[in-house]
Design a protein that fits this description.
Structural class: alpha/beta
Order of helices and strands: HEEEHHHEHEHEHEEEHEHEEHHEEHEEEH
Number of strands: 17
Bound molecules: pyridoxal-5'-phosphate
Radius of gyration: 21 Å
Mean pLDDT: 98
Strand content: 15-25%
Number of helices: 13
Shape: globular
Strand order of the largest sheet: 4-12-11-10-7-5-6
Length: 393
């Protein structure tokens, strides 16, 4: 089917909840994607940070294929080896306690929110349920995680939202202290605000927030849905900051292209959720965990993580090396980067990049966000740079 024919049927049958680019993608190899008309694109988006090992990666394809032949799904009333292995890898790699598997980032955050509230309920009784998040954050699209998101534009239409969230300024510890009161049980943050514009938090702020949480027995929840699984050059971004969170949520890159999320909790709170208090039908299903195990077998390796940092540094240097006055800067960590441009010209740059065969993302008001597959080759990065050279000429 041509793009036009597909688009016509999409408009007839699929809810119009996304402003999609005028491209129908068909297949990929490495960090290159082809549309249904056969045009190739260098992928600097990975879905949205999902296809961490690129396309048609034999490590993932073989894991999915082998597991599909054995057992794709079984309920959580039974134990499976892929689920246990995925949890063991995450716990061993971080020194944390235990894992709950979900299916998406929002669900992982919902699990973390429930965990924090029950932790506090079990220890202090009712009334300590508020969670302080940061302004300009993003935590998901469910009714609760929308409210956890510290951006007023998300708090619309779907009233009533879940109560019990308050918002502090990023990089302002006094603001966190002001917002946290006797009714607070947790502080939740992304270490690099992804949707908000690829904004890394200051290390001193993050350290101070950690110390404040310890002092008040607040759970420190780090939303690593976008920053996790090698994206920033460490398995988890919290490792770059040298902190020990109580709860870490993840999703996007974990499955390498299949839907899986997880709540990883430290030893102080990993037994809070008990039978009957939290569950999801598909969570930890063997097919998704087999894919996650494949991803982790590649990413959870110091040499691979070094390669991510090196590629990120290379890409940053080459982009800045273009010397374009339209490029106001590059920020981010590892292969989570943003090219900063004038907000009112961003759409033009993005459309030109796509037209010439590079797929980027956007974030915040003025960022062209880059989340390439972590396995992107130097040849693919160079090809993308050549196209950027034309666009930012
Ligand atoms: C994408 C994202 C989410 C939501 O994940 P979904 O899988 O879309 O539910 C939550 N938090 C952060 C930081 C994200 O980037």
């Amino acid at each position: 089917m041509t793009f036009q024919a597909l688009k016509a049927e999409e408009q007839q049958y699929v809810m119009n909840t996304y402003s999609r680019f005028p491209i129908a993608l068909d297949h990929g190899e490495g960090a290159t994607l082809w549309d249904v008309e056969g045009k190739a694109y260098i992928d600097l988006a990975s879905g949205i940070g999902v296809n961490s090992l690129g396309y048609n990666n034999p490590v993932i394809v073989d894991a999915l294929h082998g597991q599909a032949q054995k057992l794709t799904h079984v309920s959580n009333l039974f134990t499976t080896a892929p689920m246990v292995q995925a949890a063991k890898t995450l716990v061993t790699a971080t020194g944390m306690g235990k894992v709950f598997f979900a299916n998406s980032g929002a669900e992982a955050n919902e699990g973390a929110i429930k965990l924090a509230r029950k932790y506090s309920f079990d220890k202090y009784g009712e009334g300590r349920s508020k969670i302080v998040t940061l302004l300009n954050s993003f935590h998901g699209r469910t009714v609760t995680t929308l409210k956890a998101t510290g951006q007023a534009r998300f708090h619309n239409f779907f009233f009533p939202f879940t109560d019990g969230f308050d918002y502090a300024e990023a990089n302002n510890i006094e603001s966190v202290k002001e917002r946290a009161d006797e009714s607070t049980c947790a502080v939740m943050m992304e270490l690099i605000q992804g949707e908000g514009g690829v904004l890394p938090l200051d290390a001193s702020f993050v350290k101070a927030a950690e110390a404040f949480c310890r002092e008040r027995d607040l759970l420190l929840i780090i939303d690593e849905v976008q920053t996790g699984i090698g994206r920033t050059g460490a398995l988890f971004c919290f490792q770059n900051y040298g902190i020990a969170p109580d709860v870490v949520t993840m999703a996007k890159g974990l499955g390498g292209g299949v839907p899986i999320g997880a709540v990883l909790a430290g030893t102080s709170c990993c037994d809070v959720l008990t039978p009957g208090t939290h569950a999801t039908t598909f969570g930890g299903t063997p097919l998704m965990c087999a894919s996650a195990n494949a991803v982790l077998s590649v990413v959870n390796d110091p040499k691979f993580l070094t390669s991510v940092r090196e590629k990120g540094a290379y890409l940053r240097e080459r982009i800045l090396g273009l010397g374009s006055p339209d490029i106001k800067g590059v920020r981010g960590m590892g292969l989570m980067l943003a090219i900063l441009v004038d907000a009112d010209r961003r759409a033009g740059f993005v459309n030109a990049l796509i037209e010439k065969g590079v797929l980027p993302l956007t974030a915040g008001a003025d960022a062209i966000r880059l989340l390439p597959p972590l396995t992107i080759s130097y040849a693919e990065m160079d090809a993308a740079i050549e196209i950027m050279k034309e666009v930012f000429a």
